[in-house]
Design a protein that fits this description.
207 residues; alpha/beta; Rossmann fold; 45% helix; 15% strand; globular
């Protein structure tokens, strides 16, 4: 079972949106028994799951000290892919997720404060001994901010995902109705970006 932890110690980085969309991407790719574990006390992923008509992926709300039990259930069910959504400003939950994961994704908006904040999450990944990759998230559709952010990330000596996630209204609309962007606009550019990111995560260069 592949376990992805989406972690950022800064709020507003787009962790939950990314976690939800990657979980559904795995489901659409035919992975058996996909689980989305919601460690955030705000339970945004769980609320999305409540609004969702489809039964998969399975969404489990849990505290950090119950994470292992969630993962054990997923494995027992033949789980092939699990995504862990974490809370900002919670080192305990983030470290538990980081240690359990095969890969940590660090979503980062192309803004000064966000770029400065990823250092803490990178340190946490190194403490856990888990590979990490930064995903440039909520990128403006125009302008040079993404390229400038990529240069800034290079200074941290961490992997930068080759897929950039552009800010799109479809993310908001899809989550409101319990869907992913691939389900809401299956032929849209956002759906293509999520599919490419998911396939990169599962590729031999990462795992």
């Amino acid at each position: 079972m592949k376990i992805i932890a989406v972690i950022s110690q800064k709020g507003g980085a787009g962790k939950t949106t990314l976690a939800i969309n990657l979980a559904v991407a795995a489901e659409l790719a035919g992975v058996r028994s996909v689980t989305l574990v919601d460690l955030d006390p705000q339970a945004s992923a769980s609320v999305w799951g409540d609004n969702r008509e489809a039964l998969a992926p399975r969404v489990e709300s849990a505290q950090a000290n119950r994470l292992q039990q969630c993962l054990d259930r997923a494995r027992a069910d033949g789980g092939g892919f699990t995504v862990i959504d974490t809370a900002p400003h919670s080192e305990t939950a983030a470290l538990a997720a980081a240690r359990a994961a095969d890969l940590i994704l660090i979503p980062c908006r192309p803004a000064v404060l966000d770029l400065h904040a990823i250092g803490t999450t990178i340190d946490l990944a190194r403490l856990a001994g888990t590979p990490a990759a930064v995903v440039l998230n909520s990128i403006p559709s125009r302008g040079a901010l993404a390229d400038e952010a990529a240069e800034a990330v290079a200074g941290y000596e961490v992997t930068l995902a080759p897929v950039r996630i552009v800010q799109r209204a479809a993310y908001v609309h899809s989550l409101t109705c319990g869907k992913s962007i691939q389900e809401f606009e299956p032929r849209g550019k956002g759906a293509e970006e999520i599919d490419r990111l998911y396939r990169w995560i599962c590729g031999p260069a990462v795992f």
